[in-house]
Design a protein that fits this description.
Bound molecules: nicotinamide-adenine-dinucleotide
Largest sheet: 7 strands, mixed
Structural class: alpha/beta
Strand order of the largest sheet: 14-15-16-13-12-18-19
Shape: globular
Number of strands: 22
Radius of gyration: 24 Å
Length: 502
């Protein structure tokens, strides 16, 4: 089934249409500004390829202005603000977002190509919950007290404690797959911790971050506490190189993450990196077959495969291998592609023509290397950047489609004969973000979980993330856990205070 062609913007509500009716500006020091160069980036609807609006293309000079504003704010009243007031501001922001959730979901669906229903009930709910969850941390940041043993000076005693202090000015760089959720996962813990931020959304999907900027001002955050700078990789690089940025929090590709880590060394910035993945879905022979098929489909086709934890390698125990592959192929063939505003759509387009060409290149490599194409394999002709959900069977670990992150709806399946082999295959990757096990044998699952080299292991589920549950990767998937209490630790540093009892 080909995608429907819709003028989606015309279907949006008044608030979203108003937002799109004029070129957008970016937020620096509480003011909406153009880039100094005047350059702009066009923002497209991936379902139609049509232009939605445009945003400023910041360069190093704009980044410099934003960093200066964030520094002034950090050293101004923001640092004296009581934790409970930071909490109240974040809760207010959550309330405002909840009140405008429909308009935000529409903007997100238009900008990223995701289904409106997913944006409304997935992305918006997660973003609102995450703001509230992190608001609570503002009042719960604690250090430790320590009793030193140092006694070399007779009769002199010491006590020591640690204070967790905000890292300072944080540069935050995010990708296009969950634009609003990524923005919130970055700014909420940083603000709870007392940092100020310069957020750079992805050039493909800057709209909901800018809309969030409007709510930041409305909620009453002081000017300069949140700055949102739109631009491409050059703007991100300027943030990484800036000497007055104390930390970079990055979510994106491993390649750019590696560049950031190298460049940040020059100023010894703190860095946390949420990078790519090649997550295995391991189906054991006792698993509930129907659940495992639906689970494997959701693991790879959710958000059109553009998920860092996408279950892109499917490992199935041999007795049920053919049944799982066949079932997954049927699910893939039945998925209805279409624009996010069409209620009949079950899967939207990829983010860009470039991404679609990249995915096609991987599919061709898979065919060349001898993978058996069970479903999909092609782009859909017509407007928009649609690509059919694709299933490869009989793949081997050396194939490119099994080693590299495709970031599209393409899964590579292979059989295994016993759990030890499954573990070996699952860990045979340079990534370490997520993994899922599908089994009804709890003791087998408990034995396998510690052996899987991944930041998150799901049992009988996949892609389940929650603001309260730490999330992050190993190996080339990066380091630093976001979400949960770990997120606040990412944005604070321990200062040690030792007191002589003279
Ligand atoms: P990308 O790395 O190309 O871009 C991410 C961001 O970095 C964008 O804002 C981009 O403008 C910026 N950027 C590009 N070059 C830069 C540079 N030299 N210095 C600083 N910033 C630069 O990634 P993408 O294509 O937007 O997103 C897809 C990738 O993101 C995938 O690899 C995916 O796995 C990863 N991702 C990871 C997670 C996670 O939590 N681990 C979540 C979502 C996406």
């Amino acid at each position: 089934m080909g995608p429907a062609t819709l003028d989606q913007t015309g279907l949006a509500g008044e608030a979203a249409r108003r937002f799109l009716s004029s070129p957008r500006r970016m937020l620096i020091d509480g003011t909406w500004v153009e880039a100094i160069s005047g350059a702009r980036i066009e923002v497209l609807d991936p379902a139609t390829g049509g232009a939605l609006t445009s945003v400023p293309a910041a360069d190093a000079r704009d980044v410099d202005r934003a960093v200066a504003a964030a520094r002034r704010a950090f050293e101004g009243d923001w640092s004296d603000m009581r934790p409970v007031e930071r909490e109240r501001l974040l809760l207010k922001l959550a309330d405002l977002l909840e009140a405008r959730a429909d308009a935000f979901a529409e903007l997100e669906a238009l900008d990223s190509g995701k289904l409106l229903v997913m944006a409304r009930h997935g992305d918006l709910s997660i973003a609102i919950d995450s703001l509230r969850y992190n608001a609570g941390w503002a009042t719960k940041i604690e250090g430790a007290t320590i009793t030193p043993s140092f006694r070399y000076v007779p009769d002199l005693r010491f006590s020591a404690h640690t204070r967790r202090e905000p890292v300072g000015v944080v540069g935050q760089i995010i990708p296009w797959n969950f634009p609003l959720v990524m923005a919130v996962w970055k700014i909420a813990p940083a603000l709870a911790a007392g940092c100020t931020v310069v957020l750079k959304p992805a050039e493909d999907t800057p709209l909901t971050a800018l809309a969030l900027g409007e709510l930041v001002a409305e909620a009453g955050f002081p000017d300069g506490v949140v700055n949102i700078v739109t631009g491409d990789g050059a703007a991100g690089a300027a943030l990484v190189d800036h000497p007055d940025v104390d930390k970079i929090a990055f979510t994106g590709s491993t390649e750019v993450g590696q560049t950031i880590q190298r460049r940040a060394a020059a100023t010894m910035k703190r860095v946390s990196l949420e990078l790519g993945g090649k997550s295995p879905v391991v189906v054991l022979k006792d698993a509930n077959l129907e659940q495992a098929i639906q689970g494997a489909a959701m693991a790879i086709f959710f958000n059109h495969g553009q998920v860092c934890t996408a279950g892109s390698r499917l490992l199935v125990e041999r007795p049920i291998y053919e049944a799982v592959v066949e079932g997954l192929g049927q699910v893939a063939e039945a998925l209805r592609l279409g624009a996010g505003f069409d209620p009949a759509s079950q899967m939207g387009p990829l983010i860009s023509a470039r991404q679609r060409a990249r995915v096609k290149g991987y599919v061709e490599a898979g065919e060349r290397e001898g993978g058996r194409l069970v479903a999909g394999g092609d782009a859909v002709s017509g407007p928009g950047f649609f690509f059919r959900p694709t299933v490869f069977a009989d793949t081997t670990p050396q194939m490119q489609i099994c080693r590299e992150e495709i970031f599209g709806p393409v899964v590579a399946a292979m059989p295994f004969d016993e759990p030890q082999e499954a573990l070996r295959l699952a860990n045979d990757t340079s990534f370490g973000l997520g993994a899922s096990l599908w089994t009804n044998d709890l003791s087998l699952a408990n034995r396998m979980v510690p052996k899987l080299r991944a930041g998150t292991v799901w049992v009988n589920c996949h892609n389940v993330l929650d603001p309260a549950v730490p999330f992050g990767g190993l190996k080339l998937s990066g380091y630093g856990k976001e979400l949960g209490h770990s997120a606040v630790e990412l944005y604070t540093e321990a200062k040690t205070v030792t007191v002589a009892h003279v």
